[in-house]
Specification:
The protein contains 10 helices and 20 strands. The relative contact order is 0.15. The chain folds into 2 domains: about 200 residues, no CATH class; about 120 residues, no CATH class. The chain is an alpha+beta fold. The protein is globular, with a radius of gyration of 22 Å. Helix content is about 20%, strand content about 30%.
C-alpha cells in the first residue's frame, strides 16, 4: 500500500499543497517547452524568500483539476518488463508519464496515472481510499474499523474546529512555522528567489533552494508557486552531476482552480472488476518527539551526517526475504514493531497473501527480484543502486545504507 493510499486525518492548513498528492509521492514533472514561459519582464510584486514561504504556509486549500506531466532522468538501467509499458507506478522510475489530478480542496481527491492503453487510479474520500488498475481490472478498497473510523471522525472534527491539542514543539501560527522551516533550510542551503515565470498559463514565483554542501547529489530544487493561490505548480530537482536538465520534474501543463464534478471524485468499481476490501489500522496519535532527540531512533537504525549529506543505515535486515515479498521479513525491519506489531496490522499483511499459502504477495504483479537485479549492480560490499539523486547500498551482512550522496560515499562507510 502506498503512502498516497493510506487515509489519515490532516489539518486544513496541512492540505495547502494539494499537488503534493503527486509531488511528494513522485517529486518531479516534465513540461513541454511551449508551456515553460520564459521570465520576461517582471509583472508580479517583488517578494523575499521569507515572505513567500510565509504566504505558502498561511494559504488555504483550494479545489482544482488539471494535467500533470512527470519526467524522471535518474540514470537508472532500463527495465525491459511488460509492466513498464502500461499505467504502473513503477513506470515512474524513468521517462515521462501523464497524470490527471482532481481535488475539492478538502477531503476528496483523485489521481490517475495514464498509460497508452491503461490507467492506475488512487481515489480518497475522507478515511476511505481506493486503488484501481485497469490492466488488472482490480480494485483495492481501504477502510478503517468502526472504532478507528469514530476516532478519525473525532480528529477531523477537531481539526476543522481548530481544537486539536497542541503537539510538543509545535508552532502556533503559519508565519512562525514558515519562518522556522526557512531557518532550518537555510542552515544547510541558500534560499533565493528565482525568475518569475508562467506555468500552465499561471503567473508564478520561483523559490530556489541550493545545498551548501558539495558532497550531496542534489544540485538544487526549484519550486514554482502560483502567485494567486500559493499552490505549487511545478517542482524541479536538479542533480549536482548534470546541470543540463532536471533529474526529476513534476508540474501542471493545465490547471483550473474550480471544484471538480462530484462524479469525478466519487468512486464506483467498474463492472466485473475484482474488488478486495482491506481494513487499515489507524495509528495512535501520541505527541510528537523531536526527531533529533537522543534515543528516539529504533534500535538498528543510525543516522550519519546532517542536512543534504545525511545517510541512514538499517541493520540486521533479511534483505533476500524482503525482496521476495515475504511479509514475515518485515519483522527484521528496525522499528517495524511500531506499526506491524498490532493484530489489525498483521491482518492487513495477511490480506495480501494468496489463498494457496505460497508466501508471495497476491497484489503486486511485478517480479520484485527481477526488478532488484535490474536496478542494482554487484559491488564487493553487496548490491548498489546508483542514481542521479539517490544512492542505496545493500550489504551482504544485512545492512541498507541510503543517502542523497555519491555511491562511493556509501561504499566507504560500509
Amino acid at each position: 500500500m502506498t503512502e498516497a493510499s493510506v487515509p489519515r486525518p490532516t489539518s486544513s492548513r496541512a492540505r495547502w499543497a494539494v499537488p503534493a498528492v503527486v509531488a511528494v509521492a513522485v517529486t518531479g514533472a516534465f513540461l513541454a517547452p511551449p508551456l515553460l514561459a520564459s521570465a520576461d519582464e517582471s509583472v508580479l510584486p517583488d517578494v523575499t524568500p521569507g515572505q513567500l514561504v510565509t504566504t505558502i504556509a498561511a494559504a488555504e486549500p483550494v479545489p482544482l483539476s488539471g494535467t500533470v506531466v512527470y519526467t524522471a532522468r535518474l540514470g537508472l538501467p532500463e527495465i525491459p518488463l511488460a509492466e513498464m509499458t502500461g499505467a504502473d507506478p513503477i513506470a515512474l522510475l524513468g521517462g515521462s508519464s501523464t497524470l490527471r489530478v482532481w481535488t475539492d480542496g478538502a477531503e476528496r481527491s483523485r489521481v490517475a496515472l495514464l498509460g497508452s492503453a491503461s490507467e492506475y487510479s488512487v481515489v480518497q474520500d475522507g478515511a476511505e481510499a481506493w486503488t484501481y488498475s485497469s490492466s488488472d481490472d482490480a480494485v483495492v478498497h481501504y477502510t478503517l474499523s468502526a472504532a478507528d473510523q469514530a476516532r478519525f471522525d473525532a480528529l477531523a472534527d477537531d481539526a476543522r474546529a481548530g481544537t486539536l491539542p497542541e503537539v510538543a514543539g509545535g508552532l502556533p501560527t503559519p508565519d512562525e512555522a514558515a519562518r522556522a522551516a526557512l531557518a532550518q533550510v537555510e542552515q544547510y542551503s541558500t534560499v533565493a528567489m528565482g525568475d518569475q515565470t508562467t506555468v500552465a498559463g499561471r503567473d508564478a514565483y520561483q523559490l530556489v533552494v541550493t545545498p551548501k554542501d558539495a558532497s550531496t547529489l542534489i544540485g538544487k530544487v526549484v519550486v514554482a508557486i502560483d502567485a494567486e493561490t500559493s499552490t505549487p505548480l511545478r517542482v524541479q530537482t536538479w542533480s549536482s552531476t548534470d546541470s543540463s536538465s532536471p533529474a526529476l520534474e513534476i508540474g501542471f501543463t493545465d490547471v483550473a482552480f474550480t471544484t471538480p464534478d462530484d462524479a469525478v471524485l466519487a468512486f464506483s468499481a467498474p463492472a466485473g472488476a475484482a474488488v478486495k476490501d482491506v481494513v487499515v489500522p489507524l495509528p495512535e496519535m501520541t505527541g510528537a518527539e523531536p526527531e533529533t532527540a537522543p534515543g528516539t531512533l529504533p534500535e538498528g537504525v543510525s543516522i550519519t551526517g546532517t542536512g543534504w549529506e545525511t545517510v541512514t543505515t538499517w541493520s540486521g535486515l533479511d534483505v533476500a526475504s524482503l525482496i521476495a515479498g515475504d511479509p514475515a521479513a518485515l519483522a527484521t525491519v528496525p522499528g517495524a514493531e511500531l506499526t506491524i506489531g498490532s493484530e489489525s496490522a498483521q491482518d492487513l499483511i495477511e490480506e495480501f497473501m494468496p489463498s494457496d499459502g505460497s508466501g508471495s504477495p497476491s497484489i503486486p504483479t511485478l517480479d520484485t527480484s527481477v526488478l532488484y537485479d535490474q536496478l542494482t549492480t554487484a559491488v564487493p560490499e553487496g548490491r548498489l543502486l546508483s542514481s542521479t539523486l539517490l544512492s542505496v547500498l545493500v550489504t551482504d551482512d544485512g545492512r541498507v545504507l541510503v543517502g542523497a550522496v555519491p555511491a562511493e560515499t556509501l561504499r566507504a562507510m560500509a
